C-alpha cells in the first residue's frame, strides 16, 4: 500500500497544521476542500507536501500547482519498479518533493518526463542519470545572475542559469524520471570568493555526484572535485520533519533541515563547541554559527543550537573557521577563530555584556589544502566520447535558444497604450526579470500604477515615480499582481490615513501578519497580496508588503539598497519607517594610497543587528578621491579588510567601532601585506598535452621538468595579454635571465604575426612556443590552480615536474613583478 509506513505520521502532522493555521480559514480552507475530492493516495501525497513545505508554498501556489508534483510522483511510484522499491523516506524526500531549494515552484515534472522517457528507456539508473544530464546540457548552460532563484521550467525555457539554478533544473529532471536527487551546496568556499552548487543522485544504494548541465561519461567527477576538497562545509537541504537515518543533521533553518555532506568530498574533523555563562554553567539553546571569511565578510556555513550540556558539534574541513555563539535574549555574543587542523574543542563564554569598540586586530585565515578524496577519472575513450557529446549538446542549445526572447515581455511592450510607461517599467526590471516576467502581471501594475504618473511629472519627480511607485519589483520576491487586491482590501479611510502617515502601514502589518520562523525560509517569501489576505508572512515578506502597499497608494517606497531598512519618500528624501533606524550618524572612510578597494572583495562594513553583523551593501557606492562618506544608523559596526593570497589564504584586519547619534566618525582602511612565501602552494597538475612546431606531442612533464618554469596561454591582440607582454618588455633585463624557462602557448602560427607578440619573441628569442586549441587545457589547468578559466592569459608557474606553485588569469597589475620575484627568490625543487 502506498506510503503504508508513513501514513500515520503524515496524517498527524497535517492535523497539527490545520489546528495551527485553522482549517476554516485560507489558505487551508480551500486546500482541505479540494483534498476531500482526491483519492486516498493522491491526498496522502498532497498532505505530505503541505506539511513539509514552507508556509509560503501554501500561500503563494494553487492547489493545482502542488497537485502536479504529487500526481507525477504517484505515477512514478505506480509505474516504475525501481521507484516502488525505494525506501519511503527516499521516495518522499527526493522523488515526490516539489521543492529543491528556494526556487519558484512551477509544474514541470510531467513535461520533463515526456521529454526524457524515450532517451532513458532500457538504461540502468547510472546511465539514465548521465543521459538526463546530457539532455540538460542541450537545454541550459551557465550564466551568472542575481540572487533570485529561477524555477527549473524557466531555466529550460530561457536556456541558462547560475549554478544554483542549473542544479534545480537537473534535480527536477532526475526526479521526473524516478531517480532520487538533491542539490548540494558549498555556501561559501574558503579558498576563493564564491560559492557553488551541484547535484547528488541515488542509485545502487549510494549517493553519487555530478555537475549540473556539465555532464561527463562517469559520475563522481566534476570540475569542482578538487575544489570541494578545500571546502569547510558541503551541505544539502531537506524539506521534511524526520530526516532519513544515517544523515549527519546540522540543524534546522526554518522549514529546511540542513544535512552535512562534507565528508563525501574532503578530509574532515569533528569540532565540538561548549557554551557557558560567566559562572561556568552550560548555556542550552544558544545559537552557534560556524563562519568563513568570504567576499570580505564572515558568512555562516552552518548554524546549530547547543544541547542541555551547552554543547554542539560539527564535522567540517581542515582550515580556519570562526565560531560565534549567542542567545537572542542576551546582550552581545562570544566568538573564537579556530584552525581545525590543530584545534577541535572550543569553549565560549556568554557574559551578557554589550559589544565594545575594538582597535584593528589581525586575523590569519587558512584555507584547507587540496586533498581530493574522489579519484575517479574517465578513460581516454570515455573522455573523447564525452567531449563529442558535450560539443553536440552545446550546438543544439545554441541553435534552439541563442536568440530566445521572453514572449510575455514582448507582448507587454507591444501594448497599444502608455508606450513610454511600458518601456520605463521594463527598463527598471532586471535582466532576469525580463526572461520570466508575465504580461498579465505587468499589465496589472501598469493599470493601477499609471494613475500617479501625471502628478510626479508635474512635480519633476518622474524618475522617483518610475523606480519607487510604478516599479513592481521590491526585492527578490515573486512578481505577482497585488495592486488591485490591496486597493480593495482597505477602506478609503485607511488609505487616507496611510497616505497621511506611511509609517502607519507598518503598524497595521505588524498587527495583522504573523511570522512562523520554524516553518518558513526567509529567502522564500510570501507575495504581497497573498501575505495580506492570509495573515502569514516572514519578517522579510512583511517588509516587502510595506513597500507594495505604499507604492499601490502612490507613495514612493523602497528597502534601502545598502541596509535593507524600510523607507518612504517624505518631501525631498527617503526616511526610515522605524525610529530606531534613522540615518543620524556619519562615517568618513579614507584609503591608503596604492590600494584598490573593491567592496565585497577586500573589504566590508557590517552593522550589528541583534546579535549578528549584517553587511551594508555598498556595491554601487563610489569613492570621491580618497574619501567615502557614509550616512549610518547609530550603532555598532565592524570593518573588515582582507588580502586574499594566491594560495587561498587570507590576511585580514578587523575593527569594531561604535557610532553615536549625530556623530561624525573617521577611519582609514588598511590592508595587510604578505610575504612571497605566504602566497605560493604546491599542486599536482593533471596530465595535458600541447604540440610543437612540427606537430609533435609535448606533455605536461616535458614542459615542467627541470626547475622553475613559466607557462603562458596567450590571446594575441587582446589587452590582458598585451599587458603582461608589455610588462616583460619593460623588465627585459630581468626576464632575459630566465627566458629559457618560459613557454608560450598560442592557438596557431598566425598569432606570431601579431606585432606585440612578434616583438616579444624577437626580444626573447629563447622563449619556447607551443600550440594548443585552448578548448580543454585552459579549463583543466585554470580549475586545478583555482583561477578563473574564462579569462586569458592563463599564466602558470611550476617548480618541479607537474607541480604548480602559482597561477593567475586575466588582467592583473603587477604580474610581471610577481613572476620575477618567484623566479629570483623561490628555491628550485
Q: According to CATH, what is the class of the largest domain? A: Alpha Beta
Give the % helix. 25-40%
Task: Give the CA-CA distance, first to last residue.
Answer: 67 Å
The unreliable regions are none
* Mean of all residue-level pLDDT scores: 96
| Total helical segments | 31
Structural class: alpha+beta
**Structural domains: how many:** 6
Q: Could you tell me the number of beta strands?
A: 34
Q: Please compute the radius of gyration using only Cα atoms.
A: 29 Å
What does this structure look like?
The chain has 829 residues and is an alpha+beta fold. The chain has six domains: 1-85, no CATH class; 101-240 and 374-402, C8orf32 fold (Roll), CATH 3.10.620; 252-356, Immunoglobulin-like; 407-551, no CATH class; 581-676, Sandwich (Immunoglobulin-like); 679-825, 3-Layer(aba) Sandwich (Glutaredoxin), CATH 3.40.30. Helices cover 35% and strands 24% of the residues. The strands form nine sheets. It has a six-stranded antiparallel β-sheet with strand order 5-4-3-6-8-7. The N and C termini lie far apart (67 Å). The mean pLDDT is 96.
Amino acid at each position: 500500500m502506498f506510503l503504508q509506513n508513513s501514513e500515520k505520521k503524515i496524517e498527524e502532522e497535517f492535523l497539527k497544521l490545520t489546528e495551527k493555521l485553522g482549517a476554516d480559514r485560507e489558505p487551508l480552507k480551500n486546500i482541505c476542500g479540494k483534498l476531500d475530492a482526491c483519492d486516498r493516495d493522491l491526498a496522502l501525497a498532497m498532505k505530505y507536501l503541505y506539511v513539509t513545505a514552507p508556509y509560503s508554498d501554501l500561500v503563494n501556489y494553487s492547489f493545482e500547482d502542488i497537485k502536479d508534483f504529487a500526481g507525477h510522483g504517484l505515477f512514478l511510484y505506480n509505474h516504475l519498479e525501481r521507484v516502488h522499491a525505494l525506501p519511503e523516506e527516499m521516495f518522499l524526500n527526493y522523488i515526490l518533493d516539489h521543492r529543491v531549494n528556494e526556487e519558484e515552484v512551477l509544474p514541470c515534472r510531467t513535461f520533463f518526463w515526456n521529454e526524457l522517457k524515450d532517451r532513458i528507456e532500457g538504461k540502468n539508473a547510472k546511465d539514465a542519470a548521465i543521459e538526463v544530464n546530457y539532455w540538460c546540457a542541450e537545454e541550459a548552460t551557465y550564466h551568472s545572475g542575481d540572487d533570485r532563484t529561477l524555477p527549473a521550467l524557466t531555466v529550460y525555457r530561457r536556456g541558462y542559469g547560475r549554478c544554483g539554478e542549473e542544479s534545480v533544473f537537473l534535480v527536477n529532471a532526475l526526479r521526473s524520471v524516478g531517480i532520487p536527487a538533491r542539490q548540494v551546496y558549498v555556501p561559501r568556499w574558503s579558498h576563493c570568493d564564491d560559492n557553488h552548487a551541484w547535484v547528488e543522485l541515488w542509485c545502487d544504494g549510494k549517493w553519487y555526484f555530478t555537475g549540473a548541465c556539465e555532464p561527463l561519461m562517469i559520475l563522481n567527477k566534476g570540475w569542482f572535485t578538487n575544489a570541494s576538497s578545500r571546502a569547510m562545509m558541503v551541505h544539502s537541504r531537506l524539506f521534511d520533519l524526520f530526516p532519513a537515518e544515517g544523515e549527519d543533521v546540522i540543524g534546522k533553518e526554518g522549514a529546511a533541515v540542513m544535512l552535512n555532506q562534507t565528508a563525501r568530498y574532503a578530509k574532515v574533523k569533528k569540532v565540538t563547541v561548549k557554551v557557558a555563562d560567566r559562572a561556568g554553567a552550560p548555556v542550552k539553546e544558544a545559537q552557534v554559527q560556524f563562519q568563513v571569511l568570504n567576499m570580505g565578510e564572515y558568512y555562516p556555513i552552518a548554524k546549530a543550537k547547543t544541547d542541555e550540556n551547552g554543547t554542539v558539534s560539527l564535522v567540517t574541513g581542515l582550515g580556519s573557521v570562526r565560531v560565534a555563539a549567542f542567545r537572542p535574549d542576551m546582550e552581545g555574543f562570544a566568538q573564537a577563530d579556530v584552525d581545525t587542523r590543530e584545534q577541535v574543542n572550543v569553549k565560549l563564554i556568554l557574559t551578557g555584556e554589550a559589544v565594545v569598540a575594538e582597535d584593528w586586530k589581525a586575523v590569519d585565515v587558512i584555507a584547507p589544502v587540496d586533498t581530493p578524496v574522489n579519484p575517479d577519472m574517465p578513460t581516454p575513450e570515455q573522455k573523447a566520447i564525452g567531449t563529442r557529446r558535450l560539443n553536440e549538446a552545446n550546438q543544439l542549445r545554441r541553435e534552439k535558444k541563442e536568440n530566445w526572447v521572453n514572449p510575455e515581455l514582448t507582448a507587454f511592450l507591444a501594448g497599444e497604450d502608455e508606450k513610454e510607461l511600458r518601456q520605463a517599467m521594463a527598463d527598471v526590471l532586471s535582466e532576469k526579470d525580463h526572461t520570466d516576467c508575465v504580461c498579465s502581471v505587468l499589465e496589472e501594475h501598469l493599470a493601477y500604477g499609471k494613475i500617479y504618473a501625471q502628478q510626479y511629472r508635474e512635480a519633476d519627480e518622474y524618475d522617483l515615480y518610475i523606480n519607487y511607485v510604478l516599479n513592481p519589483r521590491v526585492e527578490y520576491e515573486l512578481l505577482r499582481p497585488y495592486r488591485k487586491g490591496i486597493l480593495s482590501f482597505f477602506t478609503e479611510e485607511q488609505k487616507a490615513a496611510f497616505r497621511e502617515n506611511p509609517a502607519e502601514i507598518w503598524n497595521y502589518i505588524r498587527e495583522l501578519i504573523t511570522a512562523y520562523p520554524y516553518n518558513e525560509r526567509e529567502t522564500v517569501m510570501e507575495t504581497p497580496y497573498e501575505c495580506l489576505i492570509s495573515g502569514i508572512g516572514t519578517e522579510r515578506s512583511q517588509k516587502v508588503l510595506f513597500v507594495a502597499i505604499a507604492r499601490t497608494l502612490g507613495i514612493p517606497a523602497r528597502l534601502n539598497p545598502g541596509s535593507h531598512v524600510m523607507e518612504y519618500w517624505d518631501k525631498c528624501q527617503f526616511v526610515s519607517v522605524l525610529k530606531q533606524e534613522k540615518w543620524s550618524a556619519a562615517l568618513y572612510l579614507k584609503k591608503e594610497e596604492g590600494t584598490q578597494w573593491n567592496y565585497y572583495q577586500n573589504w566590508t562594513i557590517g552593522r550589528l543587528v541583534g546579535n549578528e553583523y549584517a553587511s551594508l551593501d555598498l556595491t554601487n557606492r563610489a569613492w570621491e578621491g580618497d574619501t567615502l562618506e557614509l550616512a549610518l544608523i547609530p550603532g555598532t559596526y565592524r570593518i573588515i579588510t582582507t588580502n586574499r593570497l594566491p594560495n587561498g589564504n587570507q590576511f585580514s584586519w578587523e575593527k569594531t567601532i561604535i557610532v553615536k547619534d549625530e556623530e561624525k566618525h573617521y577611519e582609514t582602511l588598511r590592508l595587510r601585506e604578505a610575504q612571497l612565501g605566504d602566497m605560493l602552494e604546491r599542486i599536482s597538475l593533471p596530465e595535458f598535452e600541447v604540440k610543437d612546431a612540427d606537430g609533435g606531442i609535448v606533455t605536461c612533464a616535458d614542459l615542467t621538468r627541470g626547475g622553475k618554469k613559466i607557462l603562458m596561454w596567450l590571446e594575441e591582440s587582446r589587452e590582458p595579454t598585451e599587458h603582461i607582454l608589455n610588462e616583460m618588455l619593460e623588465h627585459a633585463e630581468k626576464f632575459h635571465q630566465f627566458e629559457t624557462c618560459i613557454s608560450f602557448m598560442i592557438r596557431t602560427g598566425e598569432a606570431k604575426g601579431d606585432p606585440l607578440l612578434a616583438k616579444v619573441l624577437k626580444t626573447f628569442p629563447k622563449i619556447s612556443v607551443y600550440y594548443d586549441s585552448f578548448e580543454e587545457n585552459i579549463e583543466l589547468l585554470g580549475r586545478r590552480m583555482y583561477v578563473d578559466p574564462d579569462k586569458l592569459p592563463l599564466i602558470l608557474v611550476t617548480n618541479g615536474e607537474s607541480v604548480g606553485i602559482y597561477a593567475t588569469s586575466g588582467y592583473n597589475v603587477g604580474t610581471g613583478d610577481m613572476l620575477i620575484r618567484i623566479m629570483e627568490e623561490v628555491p628550485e625543487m
